[in-house]
Amino acid sequence: MPNEPAPNHPAVQVIDVVRDYPRPRTSLLGPTPVVHALRGVSLEVKQGERFGIVGESGCGKSTLLRLIAALDRPTAGQVVVEGTDITTLPERRLRFLRENLQLVFQDPMSSLDPRMRVRDIIAEPLVVQGHPASGERVRELLEAVGLSADAGDRYPHQFSGGQRQRISIARALAPRPRILIADEPVSALDVSVRAQVLNLISDLVDELNLTLIFVSHDLSVVKHVCDRVAVMNAGQIVETGPTADVYAAPQHPYTQRLVSAIPTLERALSGATTTDLLPSKGETA
Ligand SMILES: Nc1ncnc2c1ncn2[C@@H]1O[C@H](COP(=O)(O)OP(=O)(O)O)[C@@H](O)[C@H]1O
Ligand SMILES: [Mg+2]
């Protein structure tokens, strides 16, 4: 069953968001040192859009996602989800967000409780929200992510990395969210299964009419699934546009560097072996 129709607002608006973290002191004197994780970020994600955020490790991508999911609060600026400003909303008023917005993380091994059976892992978000999942709903979710019904009886360690990420996706879909946020969902996976998991996410987003916010350090991965992309560098967005345009004609020097690093990665994504990635004789690297 598809999720409820969304209210008539952009899915997510981020307005001039700043997030500073205190850095551990190295001296007793002077002001508390600060990490400027986000230095004034603004973006708007429309309903049903597949929005990518790309940038190198440490540029602030996960921080931005945590703020959108209200797992953290900004130092300044606003985050508006489906028309509601969540910036200062108390936890008890965030229920709509916990139901309508779900996350998938990079490392399924550390985000899945190893002591729980898969069926309980998938049902957990619903239990937390007070309407437990039926066995039938769990089987439906397992099927949707391409796992067999008996997978529910097993534990996370009995699955491969790609299968564990499928379990995380099933769990995220359990509450029928409207917005799915994926933080480097294939970065920890073997190259050979990356495309399968990306295709699965892409198909489910289509089928269930989801808004997708997809983070990766790898522009070729984002290109595979997203309509529009924001490029981040050092806590700021340096360029936003349709993915195909940013990929074909990057405007900002930082994006140009990211794009010029792609051909090798793209071949890696398509399953090329290390030997294929090495320059052949006579070719300069
Ligand atoms: N809880 C935190 N406390 C202190 N510094 C943090 C915290 N979370 C992130 N940072 C710092 O903020 C910056 C951005 O981190 P992050 O959002 O994780 O980047 P990315 O996801 O792009 O790799 C990094 O310098 C990181 O060390
Ligand atoms: Mg991150």
UniProtKB/TrEMBL annotation:
Molecular functions per Gene Ontology: ATP binding; ATP hydrolysis activity
SMART domains cross-referenced by the UniProt entry: AAA
Domain of life per record: Bacteria
Pfam family, one: oligo_HPY
Alphabetical list of CDD domains matching this protein: ABC_NikE_OppD_transporters
Keywords (A to Z) from UniProt: ATP-binding, Nucleotide-binding, Transport
InterPro entries per the UniProt record, alphabetical: AAA+_ATPase, ABC_transp_ATP-bind, ABC_transporter-like_ATP-bd, ABC_transporter-like_CS, Oligopep_ABC_C, P-loop_NTPase
Stretches assigned to the ABC transporter domain: 12-259
GO terms for biological process, alphabetical: peptide transport; transmembrane transport
Family, as annotated: Belongs to the ABC transporter superfamily.
Protein name: ABC transporter ATP-binding protein
